[in-house]
Amino acid sequence: MAQGHLRRFWDEFAENRIAVAALVVVLTLVALALLAPLIAPQNPYDLSSLVLSDSRRPPGFVGSKGFTHWLGTDAQGRDLLSAILYGLKISLQIGLSAGAIAFSVGVSLGAGAAFIGGRFEAIAMRIVDLQLSFPAILLALVISALTGQGKLQLIVALAAAHYTYFARTAHGAAVAERSKEYVEAARSTPLSSLRVLFRHILPNCLPPLIVVATVQVANAIALEATLSFLGLGLPPTEPSLGALIANGFQYMLSGRYWISIFPGIALIILIIAVNIVGDQIRDQINPGLRR
Amino acid sequence: MAAFIVQRIVQGIVVMAAMSLLVFLGVYAIGNPIDVLLAPDATQEIRAQTIARYGLDRPLYEQYGQFVWRVLHGDLGRSFVFNMPVTTLIFQRLPATLELTLAAVLGATLIGVPLGIYAGYRPQSRTARWIMGISVIGFSVPTFWIGLVLILTFAVTLGWLPAGGRGETASLFGIQWSFLTGNGLKHLLLPALNLSLFKLALMIRLARAGTREIMLTDTVRFARATGQSEATIIRHHVLRLISIPLVTVFGLELGSTLAFAVVTETIFSWPGVGKLIIDSIQSLDRPVMVAYLVLVSLLFIAINFLVDLCYVALDPRMQKS
Amino acid sequence: MSEPLLSVAGLKTIFNTRNGLLHAVDDVTFSLDRGEILGLVGESGSGKSVTGFSLLGLIEQPGEIAGGSIRFDGQELVGASINTLRSIRGKRIAMIFQDPAMTLNPVLTIRQQMKLAFDAHAGQQQSDFTKRAIEVLTKVGIPDPAARLDAYPHQFSGGMRQRVAIAIALLHSPDIIIADEPTTALDVSIQAQILAEMRSLAQETGTALIWISHDLATIAALAHRIAVMYAGRIVEQGTTSALIRAPRHPYTQGLLNSRPDRFPPKAKLPQIRGAMPSLSNLPQGCAFAPRCQFASDLCRSKIPPWSGTPQDGFACYHPLERAP
Fold first, then answer.
1. ipTM for the complex?
2. What is the pTM of this model?
3. Which residues make Cβ contacts (< 8 Å) with residue B126, sequence separation at least 6?
4. 3-class DSSP state for residue C228?
5. Does A291 have pLDDT greater than 50?
6. Interatomic CA distance for residues A123 and B29, integer angstroms
7. Which of A135, A142, A253 faces B256 most closely, judged by CB atoms?
């Protein structure tokens, strides 16, 4: 039954060729990021392997190490292709971790509030609403400014900025489920109330949450890049895609476009592909939006 | 109506109180408060004096009370970097940000709403697909990246427009504005375009969704059955009905655009409060951070209040209840 | 006899959906004289509303009129230009809908909405508008119409809202009003009021009515003639008295039998077995056959042809006997 469901879901997904292409792109980028240490021509974090005389060379330049820098080199003489592969890995890592934390915290809060009800629900959801009306970027900016630079701090800042979307969605879905009769009935038997939460309420909240999750992972990746670009994300020794773009920004005005542009292209391909996949899933879950 | 206004004002005060507590805890309690009040190179003597003066040896709740007291008196401290009261500093920079934000949001609305209505009116057309494609890009591509591409294209490669700064300004009501001079307008164009793209995408989506929904209602069918032209239906029925959600979003987005101006101002060296906050974060100029947050919260509440008033004005169903 | 005001012949309206081609209206033929009231009765999904929309060319994608003819006052409406249709809509053929809460625009005053409908047809003077608006509002029984003109729809009750919609339909004194279940969403007492008012309005203004309803009782009280629709087709048509007294089609008989007022209290109400087939999944032959106690193999293989005149006849192989 569940398998038939998935099967049908996939068949419908496969009807949209653009969405399938986007999914392939996402999977390819993830694979490239995972395999970065194996396929990158150079380890961009190994400072000893960098040659300063190779810095800021255009695409196609053959460096002193004897291999071709297909995408050119940056200001430290890093091979940009390698830096992009490693940067992709960091961007994905941070986006996914922040997404996962935001998911867990948000869903616990949202579904928990709906489940507990009463004053706790009112206050918790009021706070969430208030935070939702506040731009995520500002919150992330403040948190990362207060906690300083670092991967962990960045993930915390991103998760804090994004958990609200999950909380809202989970709460909305859980409230809708809560009012259904079978849940009412199951709740009246005291033993099984937690089971109701896990067996009935949460699984039914899952489809809308999956949609929010895809979009929010893309948003977290974009926000991370933005923060890094503003110099508030990761230290420059371990550059994500955003930091790579920031490093190249100052050279762009003098026409050395590639240092910023190539990491940027990688970033937007990733973000757009994830968004397209998310859009398709949303359209399939809410058929009312189509027509 | 009066009761509604009073209720919203009370709500605003509660929100401000919560915000001030958060800002206080964030900047004063978690960080070292002395960093906020003094430059890092201050002497021991001055340190001790300051601690005594601001009562930093007192319990936290008392300190919070004093913090609120000072804020209520308009005292948000002095900037170390600029060595002037932060309120003065921020109000100097605010017009630039407001100008940029308003230009972006107005532009996004004036262009996005007609495009969105078209896409919603003819969802299957090729043009509609193009419009939606643009909106996907505007929605998912980070603002800073669009800014870079704009600079690379129009400033570096084509050389048509300047890459940064406000350009010449002219004075109106005692405040300097860029849009009043040709040169200033040229400087404003790229940053405003950059900042508006996300809003443009949002306005397109909202207007499209609203139009699609309304076109299927009996209201439109009934209007058609009375012989009204499609142009009349769009102008008088659709536009009027979608204006309610659009105004709400317009207001909310005005607030978030104010925040997103941080990115655009940094890229285009636009001397507004957004660039100021990034600079002060990097130079640990914490009084500026605190003032910025308090101010932005205040603006947020004010904007939300105005949006609610517009909402009531636009939707007659709200007026009775 | 002169040509009827409206004559519809072989009308076919299809919808091209994901689930295939739906024949929402199939080979529908009827006509309407000036001042006449025609009742169009059928279950939901029988195509009666789509027929109404087709008359005004209000069929939207993915639907279209695929064939047949609609002649109105000597003019062919199938394939007519949008400008021709628009000059007829509201001016010569008006329409009112089921739920007045959905048809009136909630954010415009009655005056604004009436003005839009008024201005849709050129040649009127601005100064005439208020006078005309008050006139039609008075006609439909809105108290203090001059003051109510600046009210919003939500400030009216459901019955009053529908009266406003009827007033808008009356603005240009149309030749025909198509009423698509206009009383279904209202309370029973208000239903009866509006029915009575519509009948006298039609009489005094000479407006013809096409009254669409699922409720045969309502229609019988109002209409001069009745057409019964089932799964997109007209299965029986005739004068109200003949059709009620002696139905020929088993489906009409079934509709009549399910009227509770025909039976003594506590009697078991007869029902038509089963449900109307979905348009995407019509059986071969007569669409009513699966529910019909008289159905034969012939019924299940070929659609029964029309017997009688276009104005008075039925489509059935095994019609009920008409008492001599």
1. 0.86
2. 0.79
3. none
4. strand
5. no
6. 24
7. A135
